[in-house]
Amino acid sequence: AEMAAARLSGTENRLVSLPLSRIRVIMKSSPEVSSINQDALFLTAKATELFVQYLATYSYKHGRGKEKNALTYTDLSHTAEECETFQFLADILPKKILASKYLKMLEKEKRDGEVREGNDEAEEEEDEDE
């Protein structure tokens, strides 16, 4: 049985490019996870690998990478923004913007927030009068 297990783990490692030890560490970082079955670890690693391949292929085909024969960060961020399947990655793959533009956006959000807070207070005062 030990020989079969050793052969299996050797085969698993060739079937997955991602390091299983790193996947295990990430899985164990979740407080709900106490122990990780070897099969679950392998399947999670393989699913992650296939997902990354799919994301890269989709981004390459639908981006400007074909012109340059390269996959770019911009292609990936555009996919996260435009494709419904990948929109959950939008925070992880944000569009690149200049720092000056980002600072202006933050300033605008801060101003808008102050205006909203002022309106909320006015509404609360009206409620108290009733």
UniProtKB/TrEMBL annotation:
Gene3D superfamilies: Histone, subunit A. One of its GO terms (molecular function) is DNA binding. It comes from the Eukaryota. Residues 17-78 form the Transcription factor CBF/NF-Y/archaeal histone domain. Heterodimer with POLE3; binds to DNA. Component of the CHRAC ISWI chromatin remodeling complex at least composed of SMARCA5/SNF2H, BAZ1A/ACF1, CHRAC1 and POLE3; the complex preferentially binds DNA through the CHRAC1-POLE3 heterodimer and possesses ATP-dependent nucleosome-remodeling activity. Within the complex, the heterodimer with POLE3 interacts with SMARCA5/SNF2H; the interaction is direct and enhances nucleosome sliding activity by the SMARCA5/SNF2H and BAZ1A/ACF1 interaction. Within the complex, the heterodimer with POLE3 interacts with BAZ1A/ACF1; the interactions are direct. This is Chromatin accessibility complex protein 1. It is found in: Nucleus. Forms a complex with DNA polymerase epsilon subunit POLE3 and binds naked DNA, which is then incorporated into chromatin, aided by the nucleosome remodeling activity of ISWI/SNF2H and ACF1. Does not enhance nucleosome sliding activity of the ACF-5 ISWI chromatin remodeling complex. The keyword Metal-binding does not apply. Residues 109-130 are annotated as: Disordered. CDD domains: HFD_CHRAC1-like. InterPro entries: CBFA_NFYB_domain, Histone-fold, Transcr_DNA_Rep_Reg. Signal peptide: none annotated. It comes from Peucedramus taeniatus. GO terms for biological process: chromatin remodeling; DNA-templated DNA replication. Transmembrane segments: none annotated. The gene is Chrac1. The keyword DNA repair does not apply. Its main location: nucleus. SUPFAM superfamilies: Histone-fold. Keywords: Acetylation, Coiled coil, DNA-binding, Nucleotidyltransferase, Nucleus, Phosphoprotein, Transferase.
